[in-house]
Amino acid sequence: MVKLTPAQHHLLNQPFEKRIFLEGPAGSGKTTVGVVRMLQLLHAGVPGDQMLVLVPQRALGIPYLRALASPEAPPGGQVSVLTAGGLARRMVDLFWPLIARQAGFAHPERPPVFLTLETAQYYMAHLVRPLLEEGFFESISIDRNRLYSQILDNLNKAALTGFPIEEISERLSAAWNGESSQRRVFADAQHCAMLFRRYCLEHNLLDFSLQVEVFRNFLHPSFLCRAYLHDSVRHLIADNIEEDTPFAHDILREWLPELDSALLIFDQDAGYRRFLGADPESAIRLAAACHETLLFTNSLVTRPGMETLGEALGNVLLIYSPHHSQPTPPQKNDWKEILNFPPQSLRFYPQMLDWVADEVARLVESGTRPGEIAILAPILSDALRFSLANRLDVRGIPYRSHRPSRSLADEPAARCLLTLARLAHPKWNQPIEPEEVIHALFIAIDGLDLVRARLLGSIVFRKHSRQLSSFTQIKPEMQERITYSVGNRYETLRTWLSDYAAQPEMELDLFFSRLFGEVLSQPGFGFHTDLDAGRVTANLIESAQKFRQAVENAGGMEGTSPGCEYLAMVRDGVIASTYVSSWQPPVEDAVFIAPAYTFLLYNRPVEHQFWLDAGSNAWFERLYQPLTHPYVLSRGWEPGRLWTAAEEYQTNRETLFRLTLGLLRRCREKVHLAFSELSEGGFEQRGMLLRSIYQIQIQETRHG
Amino acid sequence: MAEKRQLRSSQSKILTYRSGWMGISAVPGAGKTYTLSRLAADILLRGEIAPDQEILIVTLVNSAVDNFSARIATFLQEANVLPGMGYTVRTLHGLAHDIVRQRPEAVGLAEDFSIIDESEATRILEEIAAAWMRSNFHLITGYLSPDLSEQKLEDVRRNNLPRLVQNIGLQTIRYAKDQELSPEALRLELDRLPMPLPLAEMGWAIYADYQRALRYRGAVDFDDLIRLALLALKLDPALVKRLRYQWPYILEDEAQDSSRLQEEILRHLAGAEGNWVRVGDPNQAIYETFTTASPDYLINFRRTPGVISRELHESGRSTLSIIRLANHLIEWSNRLPPEDLLSKGLAYPLIRPTSPDDPRPNPPDQPEKITLHSQAFSPAEELQKVAKSIARWLQEPENQGRTVAVLSSNNKRGFDMVDELRRQGVDVVDSLLRSTQATRAAASALSDLLNWLAEPDSPSLLSKAYQAWRTRGDLSKEEKMQIPRVARQLQALRRVEDFLAPQPGSGWPQESLAREDPGLYAELIRFRDLLQRWQSAATLPPDQLTLTLAQDLFTEPSDLAVAHKLSSLIRQSASIHPDWHIKQFSAEVAVIARNQRRFIGFSDEDTRFDPDRYPGKVVVATIHKAKGLEWDRVYLLAANNYDFPSNEYDPYIAEWWYLRDQLNLEAEALAQLKAALSKNEYDFYQEGEASRQDRREYVRERLRLLFVGITRARRELVITWNTGRNGNLTPARAFQELIAFWNKSHG
Fold this sequence. Notes:
- The complex is a heterodimer.
- By secondary structure, chain A is an alpha/beta fold.
- In chain A, 49% of the residues lie in helices and 9% in strands.
- Chain A has four domains: 6-88 and 216-295, Rossmann fold (3-Layer(aba) Sandwich), CATH 3.40.50; 113-203, no CATH class; 304-405 and 585-702, Rossmann fold; 408-572.
- In chain A, helix 2 packs parallel to helix 3 (62-69), helix 6 crosses helix 8 and helix 14 (349-365) crosses helix 15.
- Chain A is globular and about 80 Å long.
- Chain B folds into four domains: 9-102 and 226-312, P-loop containing nucleotide triphosphate hydrolases (Rossmann fold), CATH 3.40.50.300; 115-217, no CATH class; 367-378 and 396-422 and 610-659 and 693-746, 3-Layer(aba) Sandwich (Rossmann fold); 437-607, PCRA, domain 4 (Orthogonal Bundle), CATH 1.10.486.
- Classes of the chains: A alpha/beta, B alpha/beta.
């Protein structure tokens, strides 16, 4: 049982029928109290199915789910742990027949088709591609898949903020002070958004924005839905409401007076998901709808130096104004103890990675548990993760990493399956390169080395026929070189593929599933003992299945099968490049490698943090998106106001402050600042994070 | 290294600068980098800027960036101040990138926009030019010489015109970007004119396709970067305000090569009330052809009311004899009648030698160390004579510890010189001609490994991969001797698979070899273990594969940094060409290794070339690359009327034999564009005029190039010329004049 502080006890002693707004910095024990409150209610006999835990994203619900799965949780109905979007989807699914016609769907008699990020991108690509040929978006340089996702993002922002989608372009244009041709681009984006929305309504497709809008505009106001929600949810715990959207806050505001009890938890100085629509300002206003606001002030996590450094960074980053007086130096010296720098200036990027790996090894040797170390980067590319992982491997340090999205199409096992799928479906006329076949065979057949894979692949595959020939047709001398045992395995695979091709075509996800189950996972084949390949296969199957269901339920695309279309989309990078893998709560005691924001939302303090590439501007700059804008499309943005470099700079400074403060509040012992003079690309770098630290040092030096 | 030393009075005067705009005219060897670095350090040490501000230093080329940084850092360290902060040194491209990065979306870029390098840009242009040629060949036939036979015409169509069309496209693109015109805007201007402008139309068509290709890749090129940086500043006063705060002082080096856009960007950043110091030597303006770069910007800036004008006219670099030669060129060009194409190609002031008590006085004069060869050589003879002369010079005891360079006006001649020197057994440094040896060696080793992974059944590629891996790092004599033996064993493999993944009874491992030559056997087994690791990495994305191989190949930090940079280049190529496999990536890396593509690496040679590090060797470079550098002895090659033309009869590089009327179509295309953009109704395009005008600008720039070449020498100078491939070239007029002057004054 966790030991609770007096402040936590005070909250838990409040009567159940109260609506409480709990506010405090990270690490002050708010979520702990939220979890205990939930268990308290259950122990008091409140049925689980009358309780809802609302979180902005699934990861933040993990402490609640863990508690519910623990032996301390009393039996009873299942408590729902949901996001506002998840709730909307659930309600739309439930009440579909009631609102489909009213909401403007062309076929209310048919079931709704909920789109994933991938399938929404697919439909968007389908609609926008012809327009690109006509000259849409001519004046901007952007990768096509980002273009599709940003148009979708605009729709989502309109839905979450609560303005009509017809106003997207108007809002963006009014704040624009850049090149005038950009206004045409906004108009193009508007046109595409409207086209997509019409297409969705005609085909019963619901992307995330439409799920939210249908719920907000048609379901939530309806008596039936409200009555249902009233009966099914009597007690609410909403955690991290500062990371949630105005949409969630609006629902909560209306909902609160009707609930028997509520606990809203607000993390001060946070709001890391602004990029995805988080609105801490609208969250804090919910305090007015509660009976009482309670404050937790003391950190249960950090050393005092962390707080001093946080304050000093605030002085440097928040008081900015050109020609302003200089910030005051830190009041105490304790911040120096919590910072660790490389002993000498490191010139090259790989040297910095080596230093990090060495420091981690040193910490582990001196008794720090690997799980108490986090290596945090502003952006974690596959290559960076790979480089770090390699170095930790060499030093025998366990590690784990998490990125919210990973490129499925880059996984060797997935690439193997995709090549075999193209081989099994010659009628789809999908291009196959000999190198792809060689690699597929190398991965698929256990015991096959690269040389024999090349010999085999170059003999049995002919590009023009897109088919594999039999091992028995190969000259005996070559058979011997490749070896008969490989030949047998190859024959098993080839026969399976050719038998499959002779039969009526089956769904692609089923094809993957059967190929995996009947061949690749069997002894003698590459996936037999490879758990990772199994996980990748499962993801690919899920991705293909969702795609198929979305396409089939929407009436399909004319003339092509969903499987063929899926493979083409993977090739174009439209899908499987942003596949969101399911959240797997990390359990092992291993060094955590993650983007800084992911670490914040994972919300688990550690003893040591490494801030990687501290000189990089990526710590400071937001992700720029030419077709959308997280601040201009937010509720707090004054219509007609211009977004200039001053806003950009100020916002970036505030964001960097919030980010660093959030990290410091989740660090118990030490922050290790890793930086090199030259970036990976060879450019000199001194980003705002490093400059701010330097400024603090200089201030102190000058003030003695 | 920049040591703290006494200053000349002209330098001290510059260091009294406190604020405002200042323009400095400097002569070669006047120590402008030293003075400017010292000025930056003084401003910092006086505490004139806040901790969140920086002095911005803008230089012309990457190699100067590190040089500046190192000098300022040294001054700061001498004053016991933390080096590295408080200033930033940027090339114009680097600065433009910094500005655009502030708000990419404001200029229509995605956050992850990529910058294509010259190689990718050329690849795109080649494709577009070829496509244009396929459907529009008839549009260019009117410019071809009427004397071409059918067969010649076919040859020209196939071999010469695609390159010419590509060049016309390139010049149009550069010019349009410099004029801040999009293809759409240029189209409107072309449509406004009633007269046909076929070359401008050709350029426009290529420009439009080129921009479309960039957009498709989500990329910009280097010229876009500069254009967009200025655009960002023009559009957003708040950005300008903030950057003015961030960079309260701007120091600009090599300002004689400033372009219109560079000046405008810096003018925005400095502001009328700001602090802006520009240093340059108009006589060293050698990047002007087909660009808007011009020494006039610096000259006019210095004449602007309110601008503090200063001079650095004393130079302690060269002997009096060398200074006299350089000064004579200035005086001669100013004496020529105005109609002479070379008239006023060089500008006053003359270079002044230092006073005897100067902290860095001129080397003692030795007129006998000046050799101006009037004798005619064939191109091959010239190279042989020079190579022999260098070989002799290097062996003379008095030249121990001294430096020597051969400078040519183009890369091709430089490479020929390198070959000749190597033939004669002279130790050559050619890294200024190409990516440096360290970078090339690293790229080459990676390419060899990738090559084997692309064709793993090839014994010869396997053998090369082994050599690439094994020859890196410090090796004992025995280890070195073993390499060819192992390489031969691998080369002789009949079946690579029997070595990599032996089957029972296949012959490997050879028990007999283990007994007879255990060292060789152990080495082969060790290499095989590595191969097995590499083959399992072959399925990784190509950038990660590169990093994996690099871990096994390199130990030097700079080599590993090159591998990281190569891997990010590969990542970028992979996103542009998703259909590429290891083979293509290997080819890409091989191009860097073979040096068809300059790639800035990380070794000191790459970023900080110091001639004094190569005594006993000869450095071969182009005059362009030698800018800012100096050697004890300098050879200047090919001082003939092709490399340094001077009148309308001299052959001229851009006027191709297959075109009629000595037309320079690149210049004509630009003239057509200028006519289309002119608002003056009396401006019209007249064929041939631009070719003549371009020739005038070119001959003046080549005169300055000769001047730059001469002023690279400290003590000794040798100039030679050759009669060219066809034997019909003559000494350059300026060279003839120098010979006459020298003979007259030295009998």
